[in-house]
Amino acid sequence: MISQGEKPQLKTYSELLIACARFPEKETWQQALLLVKDMESYGSKSNPTPDWYAKIIQECSHFRPHWQQATDLFNDMKVRGLSPNINCYNNMILAVAKGSKLEQAFELVEEMKKENISLNSCTYLHLLRGCDVIGDWRKALEIFKQMSENEIEHSERSYYFTMSALGKAGQIEDTLKLFEEMKAKHITPTVHIFNALISAYLEAGQLQHAVETFDSMPNIRQRTTYEILISGCENAGDTEKAKDLVEVMNSDFNIGKPKTNSVQID
Description:
Blueprint: H1 10-21, H2 26-37, H3 50-61, H4 67-79, H5 86-98, H6 102-114, H7 121-134, H8 137-149, H9 156-168, H10 172-184, H11 191-203, H12 207-216, H13 223-235, H14 239-252
Helix pairs in contact: 1-2, 1-3, 3-4, 3-5, 4-5, 5-6, 5-7, 6-7, 7-8, 7-9, 8-9, 9-10, 9-11, 10-11, 11-12, 11-13, 12-13, 13-14
């Protein structure tokens, strides 16, 4: 395109970066980044904005663990003299949180505060996700409490990420407390909430309570729900219960059944 004298649109650079972010080859990404850094010299008709960077950073966050690509873009934006907005910061925090770089996420939060950018619900959710990724239940509880103190409304997702982090550490009392709290607030527990609670019971060595929770669930069980409990039964030495669950799971999800030909021949 450039060699033929055509001037790339900003959309072209967006598509180039998103395409390169899907692949782990560092050399390919660096080549794309160099083109973006020099877009003015190629006669680009548009200049990148903070929102443009925010969108590409968000795309990078989808391809874990490509948090480094997001960081490259974030730094390039600053070199251009552009000030990151709330969307840029939130998407950067999401990218590094998914990449298990929780410390960098909190560094970005401190940077936001210095720039007088208030944290919103998305900021807190991304931080909680990061805590869940690395299993830092103490930090998750701290962030959860900060949301309440700052009058940020809790959602099913904030409960889930916190309960999941707690569950991985077997902190069953705090997990149950949050479960009861969300029900009191009339927030309907999703299958992910139940999965987190079952995992917490199993991690705490309370297989019977995990089974009772499984049995009490509404008709929203996923295959993952079965697999969590089956693994817990096997680890606890209850192979009979594990076998029973496998049979029910295979029946519910048509696992191992031959596909039938529904085409009728006259």
